[in-house]
Each structure stands twice: as structure tokens, then as C-alpha cells.
Amino acid sequence: xxxxxxxSVVRAAALxxxxxxxxxxxxxxxxxxxxxxxxxxSQSSSSSSSGSSYRSSASSRSGSSSSxxxxxxxxxxxxxxxxxxxxxxxxLPSLLLSVFGVLGVFALVFLFIHHKVAAAAPYASSxxxxxxxxxxxxxxxxxxxxxxxxxxxxxxxxxxLMFARVQEARARxxxxxxxxxxxxxxxxxxxxxxxxxxxxxxxxxxxIGSARIEGLRRPQxxxxxxxxxxxxxxxxxxxxxxRTQAFWVxxxxxxxxxxxxxxxxxxxxxxxxxxxxGSPVERSSLGRCPHCQASLAPGESDWCVSARRVRERRxxxxxxxxxxxEVGTDLPTIFQPGVASRLQALSTxxxxxxxxxxxxxxxxxxxxWSEANLEAIRPFETDALFGQHRFWVEEYVRQGLRNKLDDxxxxxxxxxxxxxxxxxxxxxxxxxAHARDYTVxxxxxxxxxGSGGARRLWxxxxxxxxxxxxxxxxxxxxCPSCMAPLQVxxxxxxxxxxxxxxxxxxxxxxxxxxxxxxxxx
Length: 521
Fold this sequence. Notes:
This protein is about 25% helix and about 25% strand. By secondary structure, it is α+β, with helices and mostly antiparallel strands. It has a four-stranded antiparallel beta sheet. Strands 5-6-7-8 form a four-stranded antiparallel beta sheet. A hairpin with a 4-residue loop joins strand 6 (about 425-440) and strand 7. Helix 1 (about 5-25) packs across helix 2 (about 90-120). The longest helix is centred in the first third of the chain and has 33 residues, at about 90-120. The two termini are about 35 Å apart.
């Protein structure tokens, strides 16, 4: 009998036992405490921010369900002695009920023990019902039909940087540097925006947990294209009254542009000046760039943010000693249709070398995070992702803490998705790993979060990108441009030849980490 079948039988026996015991015991209110696994195809969730491990767990979920107290009704049973004339037949029902009650108790004990063992086992097979199938995203494919130069990798990288810059401008109350990329209405909205009903004095510690394209629209009677992008982030707000408060936010931004506008090239992701020539922001009297005469009206020569909606904002404690429960490790892996043939079609890919790169990057990142060594992390991440992890590493240092990952093991790597665009090849892998994950206070080396003894299992989806047509780098310890020992500055350039190495021009770099419960294919 399969594990799922066995658990079903045991649960049924437990239910019978509970009903039998309830028939003998006194009435009592029932309260069902929920967890984080799929149950009968439904799921309850909430999100919170955490920097408790390198694994970029900026979102976690905890669900609970409860039923209202059941109304108790007393049943008046007549007291008296039973007749013995029926012999065994009179007591048979009671015997059967007693037997089922005992079996039910044993079933409950079995379930309790099984749950504890499964939680402790690092590779326990899933017994939860799988989630409903999630549709594969085809937004990037649709955009490439409209614009052959569109790259999801480039766009998401730029949108993430824009999110950070706009939030910083909101705190400074100075939007000049980003005015080219904000509609007039949104600028007015942001100038009046409040957090908890109070104007901001400053905003610090912005950490973007995820950025994902959620929708594509071409509104009727309007000659524009719109992309909806969701951002999940955390930051600490400082108010005029001196109070500080950390927040977790889920925001939906709408990026708009004219249909004839072409996308940015990878080397122009960080450019903030004129979208056409890169000149500093300054407008002529006609609203054009004085250098190249390109229109500087938002949305006419580049994407602009036309709408912002805060879907959720919640206060969070500004501490790094909490423990975020892993969610989704038992969810089935989401594979892109035809992923094997797509992988084989990458003519410049060596599967063996790619696997080596993934493993090397994985362990280098875990070690660098555990040692608070940003130089060890930098060669393997794009600018936006490194910016997120740099904040958390520096925040741990500032608070005199260290998040440590000991006995790290990478047990499985599965290629689940392969994408191509004009500039990049992108490969998404689901990684399965475990380690002892805990936080210590550096002053006395006391464990203040997590557990130094228990192993923690996790699975995540990591997306690596590399410039199309790039040849395999010879190794992971020398600069692929000048062959000097690999030393990458925080700007992402080789310390010897000043070549940009973190854009994927030479080797695979990590651009995105997505949690199991967030990944949609």
C-alpha cells in the first residue's frame, strides 16, 4: 500500500476513534490549528520579511484555520440497569465501540509520531496533496512578439533598480533623478504618499525580496503597452516624530510605454539619463533632450511607471533573530514543457560545466554569507540581487550578529526551465539542500536564533543567465577576460582589467532566487 493510502486509512481510523471517544466523553469545544502544507487543495498563507539566512527568504507563509466553538447540547440519558437477558448480543455494540475507540487512539498516536519523523527526515517524501496546476507564464513570449529586443532578464533587473530608486526618491522628496520614468500623476501621488498616515523623514534598509511580471495589457483605444510587476520588499521608515518602524510591503506597479519603443540593452540597465543617448537629465523648452532631440515625455522613449498600488503593508519587527519556517519543500517540481529539448538546443552549453558552475556558485554564496564576506559573493550575482544580499550582510554586522550555515549539502539540482531572448540564455534550476542554520551574537557567541544542531532542509528555484553565444569559462577562480586571479569589486568589475563580469557576458551568474511557494514557472 502506498504511503498516501496508508495515511488515508490511518486518518479514517482516527476519525472513527474520535467519534467513538466523543460519544463516551463529555462535550468540548474543538479548535483546528493549521499548518503550511496543502490540504484538500486549499491553502492559507501570509507573507513576512526575513533576513535570517542567505537563502533570500524575504517571504514566508504561515497559515492557520479555526472553527468557531461548537455549540454543546446536553443529552439527558435515563439512568438504570441494563437487562442481561440478551447475553453477548446486548454488550456487543459496546464492545465494538470500545475496540474502535482504542484503535482510534493508536491511530492518533501513529499520526503524531509519523508527523514528527517526517519533519525531522531531510528527504521525507511528500504525503500532502499537490497544489492545483499553475499555468505557465507566457508574458515574455507575448512581449517578444511585440518587441524582438525585449528581454525579461534585462527588464526585471531594470525594474528592480527603478523600484529602489523611486522608494529612495520618495524618502528624499526629490524626484528629479527619476522624473523621466514616472508619469505626472504618479509623481503627485508619491509626493503625497504616507506610511501609517505620516510623512516619511527617511527610508533605510530597503531589501527587495522578489520582482515578478504578473500581467501584460494593451488597453483598447490607447496606443500603449502595459506590464504589471509585483514587488515584495522590506524597509525601515523614519518619521518626523523620531519614531522608526520596519515594514513589509507587496506593491503592484504598472510600467507603460508606446508600442514602437524598443527595450534597453543589458549595458544600459543602470543608465538614468536620456533613454536615447544617456545624457544627464535636462529638458529643452520643447520637452526634448538638448543633445539628441529625443522626446523626454515619460513613456515615449522608454518604460515609465504609470501606476502604483500597495496591495499589502504590514509592520514587522526589525530584528534578525527570528526563525522563518520553510514552506513548499514538499511541493511538486514545476517543469517547463519541453525543457529537455530546450536544454539540448543550447549549442554553446556544456551540461557538465554548467552543473559545476551551479555547485561552485552555491557553495561560494553559502560560505560568503556565513562569513559575512561580500567579496566572495560578488562574482556570482547580478547587481540587483547582490544589492539585496549586501544589505542583509551589512545589517547583521551592524547588529553584532552572524547567520551561520554549517555542514551545507547540495543534494539535488534539477533543470526546470530554459529561456532565450535576444541577449541572454536563462536556465532555472530547483535546488534541494540542507544545513545547520542558526544565528549567533558575536560578543559572546551565544545562539540567538535557529538551531546549531538540527538540520534545515530547503528547496528553491535559482535562475542563472549568460550572454547568448558566450563560450564556457575555463574555471571559476580566474577572470575569464584577463585570466588574472578572480577578484571582483562591488561594482561587478574585475579588479585587474575593469571588465564587467556580473552581467553574464562571460559566465553564468545568478539573477533570481524564488521560493517554492512563490515560483510559478
